[in-house]
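Data card: per-record layout.
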Amino acid sequence: MPEILLFTKPGCQKCDYIKERLPAGLKVATVDTSTAEGLAEAAYYEILGKHTPILVVDDQVVEGAINIMTRLNDLAGNGKA
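The structure for this 81-residue chain is written out next.
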């Protein structure tokens, strides 16, 4: 199973939308970009300054709520957004 990271921040409606709809059985680590640790992680993946939510699957960056939901559902094997 690939490493799956979801970069979010508080007060982000699209982030909340994604988090509420994470496919069952899929292990997704959430990274809060409003914290020092979250910013450091975002810097590592070179996504500082980009709008959340952002999904990183291994080293592949996926931006945009629809694209993220599509990718998560593909990873979970149910292929629907």
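Known properties of this structure: The helical segments are 13-20, 36-44, 65-76. The first strand starts at residue 4 and ends at 8.

See the next section for split statistics.
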